[in-house]
Amino acid sequence: MKHFQILMAAVILFASCKKKEEKKDETEETPTIDFVVAFGSCNMSQEPNPFWDDILAEKPNVWVWGGDIVYADTDDVDRLRTIYAMQDTVPGYAKLKKEVPIIGTWDDHDFGLNDGGAEFAIKAESQQVFLDFMGVPKESERRNREGVYAAHEYEVEAGKVKVIVLDTRYFRSELLKSEDTNKRYRPTMDSTATVLGSAQWQWLENELNESDADFNLIMSSIQVLSGEHGFESWGNFPLEVEKLENIIVRSGAKGVIILSGDRHISEFSKTAVSGLSYPLIDFTSSGLTHSYASFDGEPNQYRVGEVVSDKSYGIINLNIKKMEAEFKIMGDNGSVLQELKQSY
C-alpha cells in the first residue's frame, strides 16, 4: 500500500510539472502583432505571381504597391489603361483586392517611361489612369494636383499607423549619366535638382510634423539608403537624402520606416541618423514576378544581412504597444527568406 501511495504521488507530481511546463510554453508564444503591412513591387500581370494566396494568409491590414505594378513603358494612354486592366483580372489579386485595402505608388514602368521623370510627356494623363486603377474617387483632391503622392492613416485598438506614399517620378530632375561603365548614373550636387519637387516636399514635411501615429511608414518606389550601385536611387541626389533625413529628425515623428522597391532584389539597409533616437531602416522588396536571378553582388554600406535575389514580397509586423517592428522578406508558401527586428 505504501509503495502504491508513493507511485501515485510521483504521478501527481509529474502531471503537475507537465501542466506548469505547458503553461510556460503558452506564455512564450509569438509577441502580439497589432498591425501587419504587406508590400511589394515589380509585377508583370502576364507572368505568374505565386504570392497572392500567401499574402492573404498573412492577414495584412493593408497591401502597399511599391511601384512597377505593371510593365507598360508606353506613352499610349489607351494601352496603359488596358495593361492595368489585365492586372485586375488576375484571380489572386482580385481576391486580395476584395479583402484587403490596397494603396501605393508608381515607379517608372507603370509611370510609362523607363527611368523616367519630370520630362515624360504624358505624365498628367498617366496619373489619371493610375488613380483609376487605385480606385481613387473622381472628386478626390488627388485628381486635381500633380503627382500621385498620398497619406493613409489606420487606427487599431493598440494605436495608429500612418503610411505615406511618395511620388519619385512626376517631379524628378534629370539623371546624370555615369562615365563609369559599371554604373548607369552618377550623383549630382546641384542644389536645384529634386526627387520630389517643392510642393510634395512641403506636403511631406507637414504630414510628418502633424503626425500623431505610433509608426510612420514612407513608401519610396526607389531606394533611399542604398546608392552606391549606380542605378536609380535617392543616392543620385545626395542633397535630397540629407533633406529627407533632416525633415524626419525635425518632425519628431515616431517610428519612421522607409519602404522601397524597383531593384528586382530584396534587402535591408540601416543607418544611424544624428538626432534620431532609433536607426533609419530602408526595407527594399522586389520583385514579385521576376527578380535579378543573376545577381552577383554590389556595394551597399548600409546593408544588414544578405541580398535576396529570389522573387519575394515584404511583411512588416508591428507591435505598437512595445514599439517593435519585425521585417520579413517572404518567399513562396510562407517561407521566410530573411528577417530583421528593431525596437523604436
Automatic annotation (TrEMBL):
Q: Which CDD domains match?
A: MPP_PhoD
**Could you tell me which SUPFAM superfamilies the record lists for this protein?**
Metallo-dependent phosphatases
Name any one Pfam family assigned in the record.
PhoD
- PhoD-like phosphatase metallophosphatase domain residues: 76-271
| PANTHER family, per database record | CALCINEURIN-LIKE METALLO-PHOSPHOESTERASE SUPERFAMILY PROTEIN
**Protein name as catalogued:** PhoD-like phosphatase metallophosphatase domain-containing protein
